Amino acid sequence: MRNVYVFVLVACIVAMGLRCAQAGDEPAKISLKVLYAGAPGSQRQEEFVELLGKYFTEVKTVDVNAFTPDAARESDVVILDNEGHAKTEDPPDLPQDYARPTITTGVIGSYLGARRNLKTGYL
């Protein structure tokens, strides 16, 4: 449920930023460190990083197949996106005490949800 709240929060922030951009005002960056875990070198990753970089003070990237909870240690929010990969080799096994706000896109969300007995609607 926490992922839903974080997604809604990020969507609202981006919408506010887009509204400011339409008005010609430069939005102030939000003091959050975002970690984007996706397909390195993909157009999707480049577009995500460009968009997030407009609104957040720091955006780092990592290969989603190499993501570990330790990689997120210094980030405020994590985005796990396996849409650029033909197949996520082995979705990360997040421990029960993993507490970093995390947004998932694609099948990786269903894998992680199923491991925690959440009803994601995919599996």
What's a quick, concise take on this entry?
With 123 residues, the protein is α/β, with parallel strands linked by helices.
What would you note in describing this structure?
With 123 residues, this protein is an alpha/beta fold. 36% of the residues lie in helices and 21% in strands. A 4-stranded parallel β-sheet has the order 2-1-3-4, sandwiched between helices. Strand 1, helix 2 and strand 2 (56-63) form a beta-alpha-beta unit. The radius of gyration is 15 Å and the shape is globular. The protein starts with a helix and ends in an 8-residue tail after the last helix.
Task: Quote the beta fraction.
Answer: 15-25%
The sequence of SSEs as H and E is HEHEEEH
Helical run tally = 3
Q: What is the gyration radius calculated from CA atoms? A: 15 Å
Shape: globular
- Count the beta strands: 4
What would the keywords be for this entry?
alpha/beta; 123 residues; 36% helix; 21% strand; 3 helices; four-stranded parallel beta sheet; globular
Layout of helices and strands, plus pairs?
Layout: H1 2-23, E1 30-38, H2 43-55, E2 56-63, E3 77-81, E4 102-105, H3 107-115
Parallel strand pairs: 1-2, 1-3, 3-4
